[in-house]
Amino acid sequence: MMDSMQKTSSRLLALLSLLQTHRDWSGGDLARRLDVTSRTVRRDIDRLRDLGYPITTVKGPAGGYRLEAGTRMPPLLFDDGQAVALAVALQTAAAGTAVAEDAARALATLRQVMPPHLRHRIDLLHVTAVRPPAAGATAEVDPQVLLELSQVIHARQELRFDHTPGPGAASGVSRRAEPHHLVTWRHRWYLVAFDLDRDDWRTFRVDRIRPRTPTGPRFTPRALPGGDVSTFITSRFRGNDGTTTEWPCRGEVILPLPAAEVAPFAQDAIVEELGPDRCRLTLGSWSWTGLAATLGHFDTDVTVVGPPQLAAAFADLAARYTRVAGSRSGPPP
User: Fold this and answer.
1) pLDDT band at residue 128, thresholds of 50, 70 and 90?
2) What is the per-residue DSSP string for 265-329?
3) What does the pLDDT average to over 214-223?
4) Is the Cβ–Cβ distance between 147 and 154 less than 8 Å?
């Protein structure tokens, strides 16, 4: 009886994994992938629906199934490998950030719904993440503020906020601005905006911003001085601390990762938020090959915006690694 239940649970996990690929699946395709009958697939679909997963039936000659976004969070189903990976991520990715406490609470919640054998494995897992210190003090940023700023940027709405000029200030100064970009520079978050009170472009440290509600009217975005965020930011900060490096090779890429995940590892690069799971990274190096190799550290797909030399460097590295991977020669005697 126990073996049967375990097989059913494993099959449900496999079925859910297929449905989460965000495509339509016919019953026949699912049956072949899971090596079961179409009747079993229908029964397992009903079980997942009973658990709260919003699976809809797709109309058509062969019919099919699709996993939709739900209105509530159903029970989380993870296999052992997924659960351990999630625990490691929660212990390491948020270390030293403003969301570390939320990550710890998320891990505690996840632990409560784990089976005993898996909970024991998680309890034995203790990972300590060490972050290299940034130059100067690194201020924590409220994730809720980042979310609110992202929303007004996307909606192109005038932002009203209190801004604390610096440490020790008794209170914030009321400001109005047209928010354009959220970026990170040297481990700090900045808002690039057109200051309506001063009729000029400004950069505001996000840890000193407190948004007000309601927001202001919608606006038509102005052209950013310099033509792009990277040029604007580097021109604003060049010479402030005497440490800005003029790299001989400088490139721009798009990464399918949240800006908040890229920022802790971006070093001297500029990270611009483009959406909840997408950001633009502008960084430099002493060589194009070195720049391409550095981008490989993010372990994700990379879309090269420019220049062509960076794309060529990726091609050179790919060819070089292909030759190494295809080499069958053993170690030197």
Assistant:
1) very low
2) G-TT-EEEEEETTEEEEEEEESSHHHHHHHHGGG-S--EEEE-HHHHHHHHHHHHHHHHHHH---
3) 89
4) no
